[in-house]
Amino acid sequence: MATDNPVYTPWFVNNHPANGKGYEAAVTYAVAAKLGFKSSQVKWVYEPFNNSYAPGPKKFDFDINEVSYTPQRAQEVTFSSSYYADRQALVVLKNGPLVKNHSPAALKTYLYGDQIGTTSLAYIISQISPTQRPKPYNNLNDVKSALDTHQIQAFVTDTPTAQFIAADQVPGSTVVGQFPSTGEHFGMLFQKGDKLVGCVNWALAALTQAGTIQALQRRYLQIYLTIPTIKP
Question: Do the beta carbons of residue 191 and residue 75 sit within 8 Å?
Fold first, then answer.
């Protein structure tokens, strides 16, 4: 299994995928168990987010790292079925103007930044359409630092990650709201054409039918499902 480094709550806990804690870690071990593997047989490797969906051979069986399915990415890699229906949320500083003024027209006037290659950056460009071009950063740590040092006024990321960042990682930040669903979802990522995806899809379907996926979402993600919706 592959994922990025560092990884964050609620997807993983204590930046340690092998402890099985956090939603993505728990889903991984549930899939492994359904396919007949012991926890001790699950091995983790590091794969940067931007490299995961690049074309070519992979050094993992699948990658799980909040990678959203897009038709463009699916030309180079194969995705599993959805294991989480994603929504984007807006992170800002509490003392900034965005907290009170985030109408669709106002949202266009702010300076954003986000991790390069992400659907969050694409969402800013295509849905919010700000008048200033968003600043691209190599990783989410750089994006958080840019907000903390007032290089940008806001960034967008998936709702659970946004809430965790605002609560624990960027002092004085908050989640203004989450945007309406666009049908975006996370999938496990495989080398293009890998037949293992059929086995994983079977496992995900069985876990969903048994209520396991829903139980893991309630355990790790429930508090993130009540954030108010705002319009881009």
Answer: no
Q: Are 4 and 65 in contact (CB under 8 A)?
A: yes
Tokens of 217: 């979402």
State the fold for domain 88-178: D-Maltodextrin-Binding Protein; domain 2 (3.40.190)
Tokens linked to 4? 């990025």
> Higher pLDDT residue, 192 or 182?
192
Query: What is the rounded average pLDDT for all residues in the chain?
Result: 94
Residue closest to 63 by CA, chosen among 22, 19, 17: 17
110: tokens are: 């702010």
DSSP conformational letter for 47: -
Band the pLDDT of 225: cuts 50, 70, 90: low
Cα–Cα–Cα angle for 49, 79, 122, rounded to 5 degrees: 50
> Which pLDDT score is estimated for 63?
98
As a CATH number, domain 2-85+183-226 is 3.40.190.10
**Angle formed by the axes of helices 23-34 and 212-221, nearest 10°:** 160
In 3D, which of 185, 224, 211, 221 has the Cα closest to residue 30? 211
Q: For 166-175, what is each residue's pLDDT tens digit?
A: 988 999 999 9
DSSP state of 226: G
- pTM (predicted TM-score): 0.79
How far is Cα 98 from Cα 137, in angstroms, rounded to an integer?
21
